[in-house]
Write the structure tokens for this entry.
Amino acid sequence: MIRSTSRPGFQALAAGLAGVVFGLGLAIAQMTDPRKVLAFLDVAGAWDPSLLFVLGAAVAVTAIGFALAGRRAAPWFDTRFHSPTARAIDRPLLLGSALFGVGWGLVGYCPGPAIASLGSANVEVLWFLPALVAGTLAHRMSSGHTRPTDDEA
Amino acid sequence: MTTTSSVVAALIGGVLIGLASVALWALNGRIAGVSGVAGRLWRAAAGDRAWRVCFLGGLVLGNLLWVSFTGEVPARTGFPVWALILGGLLVGYGTSMAGGCTSGHGVCGLARLSPRSLAAVFTFLAVAAVTTFLARHLLQVS
């Protein structure tokens, strides 16, 4: 059966539920604790491989789920799947990933856990998140993009 | 030290992250990449904003629920503010340039077998590890 209408109300509910489960997952996996993340990235120190298990489990479940979901013509609450359109492994991808890596390796936060941390009275992200927004805006202005350049359609 | 319970917690957390990503894709047709979901929030067209707000709010709520349940609040102290700001600037700039982060490229991208995401993940993991080494063992920052 093809869904031909977009249902914003259900989209919001579904997104909220997905967000809660995602946030729960981050918290249980302790990805909201930058010390845990840095313990993984600190390969020369007392190495903690936990993040590898988190990523591994997440990718495995997602891969199976995406394969199953992809058999449908459209998602439940929208007219189409919003697949990433970018294909090339280009300089912005690699340089951007490197810059992101520096920031992440320095402080132990990436966007998801940092935002989720607002729910655990984390004062560090009160510095980190506005700076993240500033960095994002700086990139858009400097590259001439006023729209986000993320991979999504 | 890696204990059995921490491995179990990591696996459970990862499974939940995966289920959430599958749900957002199967139900809404959207990639659960936080930098992307948040990145388009401000300029979102009507009908495109509510789900973004709900997803990001859900992240906060999910974490809050767990913290309330365990009564434990992870809190690092003594980390320099200048590093938090610099880190934020780099993460914001970099994820915008790369079109994704650990959730978008790392979880969803790898799950979709995207060569672009594989390149991104390899790059940011390697660079992050080098950065942590320099910051911890040379600069004594973290």
Q: What stands out?
A: Chain A touches chain B through 123 residues (CB under 8 Å). The radius of gyration of chain A is 18 Å. The first helix of chain A runs from residue 8 to 28.
